Amino acid sequence: MKPAPFDYVAARTVAEAVEALGGTGHKAQVLAGGQSLILEMRLQRVRPDLVVDINRIRELGGMSIEDGDLRVGALVRHTAFESAEVAPGPLGTLLSRAVVNIAHPPIRSRGTMVGSFGWAHPASEWCAIGVTLEAVVEMTGPDGTRSVAAGDYFLGPHRSERRPMELITSVRLPLLREDTGVGFLEHRRTGFCFAQVAVAATLTVTDGAISGARIGLANCADRPVRARAAERSLAGADIGPLPEGARLPDDHLFAHAGRIAAQEDAAPVAEPYADVEYKRQVIAVLVGRTLLEAAADQRARLAVREGRR
């Protein structure tokens, strides 16, 4: 199939893009990487009157560290995050572990992190990480610039707080403490499918007890969610020795947190090859394993720090 007829504007400034978006209301679409948009247009599931191409807006193409955050511009491609050096400390590691799960190299060379926030797919790795880390989405519209916390930004599948005349200019991700461990795992039917379940986790341990834990879930509800009940179950717990291998004993605190996440935090929707019961089982297992990965990462970081002293 071919796209329905549409007009096209190649904006060179944010102001030009916002002006174009404001002129057509709900039927305008923004083109950055286009890896989701173009497919949907070809299938005519999305039929915009106007496509606003932002690829010529130079100010949207960079990343910077500002006030303890990594600020990611709207044109930064997925491939920029394949090296852990993209951001200092654990944040860079988390982003590099997540990005390899996104589609395949040609897609990653064109798609963008900010585009994922704009598309707001429940299975998006970046959207789950945004909710996990309490990222901030920055948007510019006719009334100026505003910021929305990621936890408030997502409203449902392909629905968000972005207004039709607004352009997402950047996403801000907070840097993580050096003593924080990170983990990211996902389960999918084939290498190129969307994740049936994806989990991001950060873990901080102080004097042998868990002093901070964050768990984010992708494709476990109609939007990315924090597993807050599971997080509470970990608060102050003695971490003890870590099990060897990926399989956790049923009575381990990470396995227990996984079961809580599956039953209390998630609201999975059945899909082909994955009914609700199956997805809850996957969530329980994957949360436990991701926490184990984060704990191992945290211990490795402490060992490196001790070795430097």
Automatic annotation (TrEMBL):
It comes from the Bacteria. Residues 1-178 form the FAD-binding PCMH-type domain. Keywords: FAD, Flavoprotein, Oxidoreductase. InterPro entries: CO_DH_flav_C (IPR005107), CO_DH_flav_C_dom_sf (IPR036683), Diverse_Substr_Oxidored (IPR051312), FAD-bd_PCMH (IPR016166), FAD-bd_PCMH-like_sf (IPR036318), FAD-bd_PCMH_sub1 (IPR016167), FAD-bd_PCMH_sub2 (IPR016169), Mopterin_DH_FAD-bd (IPR002346). GO terms for molecular function: FAD binding; oxidoreductase activity. Pfam families: CO_deh_flav_C, FAD_binding_5. Gene3D superfamilies: 3.30.465.10, CO dehydrogenase flavoprotein, C-terminal domain, Uridine Diphospho-n-acetylenolpyruvylglucosamine Reductase, domain 2. SMART domains: CO_deh_flav_C. This is Molybdopterin dehydrogenase. It comes from Streptomyces malaysiense. The lineage of its organism: Bacteria, Bacillati, Actinomycetota, Actinomycetes, Kitasatosporales.
